[in-house]
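Write out this protein's structure.
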Amino acid sequence: MIRAHRIRLNPTPEQAQYCVCASGTRRFVFNWGLAEMIKRYQAGEKVTVLDLKKRFNAIREKEFPWSYEVTKCAVEGAFMDLASAFKNFFEGIKKGRKVGFPKFKAKKRSKAGFYVANDKFRVNGHTIKLPHIGDVNMAEALRLKGKILSARITQSGKWWFVSITVETSSEPREQPTDGAVGIDLGINRLATLSNGTVFENQRHLQKKLKRLKGLQNRSRANKKGARTARKRG
């Protein structure tokens, strides 16, 4: 059974910027491959995505040296996505389904993200070690047991996530919903239950309190300004 566990990441600003760069590289390579595919077909040539990948790697160092600043998985994943898009398109035609031709990925419309092969990352508790940027904090530990196949880093709103695909023969561990448990409140973590369940401290309260303090200071400043204006009047 193939399952995936999506976990929110807590990257540093530098790590988040790397994810942006890797996502941009993946988007560029996908669009390059799609443009080449269209051009070759219009010229009457037969070409596969594998041919395009070999062509890109042959000219990569000379024409796209900046692509080496991120993991090679971003490039490989782009060609995997392109192959999947064309496979779905042609299979849809054969089966009589209306499937749109693969589209170019626009920065504003496409979801930022990139692929990471299973031999290029490691998971240890609440940490995932990624190429080039090292350990990145995860909001929770991987719940699935089995052979890790791959990972996808994606952005949703202002958050980054990792979706880890695992080949497993068992369902994810369910936590008991009844019975008494002990609760250990902490500083780095919100709480740890005696059954092993961990609740991460997302620091929402601190953020709200900080914002409230700022609003209160602004309100006092506005009132002080109004009183000064009345005295002068």
